[in-house]
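Example 9 (inverse folding). The structure is encoded as follows.
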């Protein structure tokens, strides 16, 4: 992985401002810092300001595993494209969602919830989020994370319809086999936007579906260095997202004046 803020790399990023490029961002851990209560995360006013300015020059997308309705409620920024539950929402290709996935997730949610509140495990700081087409089990609040993680592993092993399991930072996402992921979503947004190039930045294992895309027209950036990540570039931490957005907006303004 190469550090994004090296001089030669910044020249590559700046070159994207000369052509129609889609800029896509993960939400949690990327546009917002990770906190113990995921329901209270919000984008800072400075980042909203920068995203709003960026949107005046080029298409902007937010791709998140969150429920799209929840994203709309907590965000003060309206991107050109909003992706929820790892699939497109509001685009022509994303309207006919397979009800089979929803039914499977509802069954998983009920099973896990019943076990979670049937004994002492609800004291481990575990919470479950039904995203309609995927389930997220959070244990960020737990003071006994190893025990909480082991309990979750045991529960997942007993689920009917074996899920695709994606472990994140104190969270595990379970997704029906065959359901679309962030990589599929990004490709659909690129096609819809008519852009030739794309820039994507994310921080978690769910973003590896984007990083693993064999598409040389997508610049893939991870927040935090990770040796086995498929992302080619990285920034050191979430705080550097402000510097990245400042560089992008300043580059667009400079190049716009030069035209």
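The amino acid assigned to each position is listed next.
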């Amino acid at each position: 992985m190469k550090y994004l803020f090296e001089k030669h790399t910044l020249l590559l990023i700046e070159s994207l401002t000369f052509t129609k490029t889609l800029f896509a961002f993960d939400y949690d851990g990327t546009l917002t810092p990770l906190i113990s209560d995921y329901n209270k995360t919000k984008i800072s006013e400075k980042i909203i300001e920068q995203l709003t300015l960026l949107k005046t020059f080029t298409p902007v997308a937010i791709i998140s595993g969150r429920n799209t309705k929840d994203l709309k409620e907590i965000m003060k920024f309206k991107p050109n494209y909003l992706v929820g539950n790892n699939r497109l929402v509001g685009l022509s290709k994303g309207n006919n969602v397979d009800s089979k996935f929803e039914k499977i997730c509802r069954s998983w949610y009920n099973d896990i919830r019943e076990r979670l509140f049937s004994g002492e495990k609800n004291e481990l700081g575990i919470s479950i989020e039904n995203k309609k087409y995927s389930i997220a089990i959070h244990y960020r609040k737990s003071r006994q994370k190893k025990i909480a993680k082991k309990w979750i592993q045991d529960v997942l092993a007993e689920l009917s319809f074996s899920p695709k399991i994606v472990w994140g930072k104190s969270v595990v996402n379970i997704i029906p086999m065959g359901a679309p992921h962030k990589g599929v979503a990004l490709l659909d947004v690129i096609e819809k936007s008519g852009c030739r190039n794309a820039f994507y930045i994310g921080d978690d294992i769910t973003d590896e579906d984007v990083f693993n895309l064999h598409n040389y027209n997508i610049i893939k950036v991870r927040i935090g260095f990770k040796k086995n990540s498929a992302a080619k570039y990285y920034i050191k931490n979430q705080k550097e997202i402000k510097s990245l957005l400042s560089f992008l907006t300043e580059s667009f303004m400079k190049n716009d004046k030069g035209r």
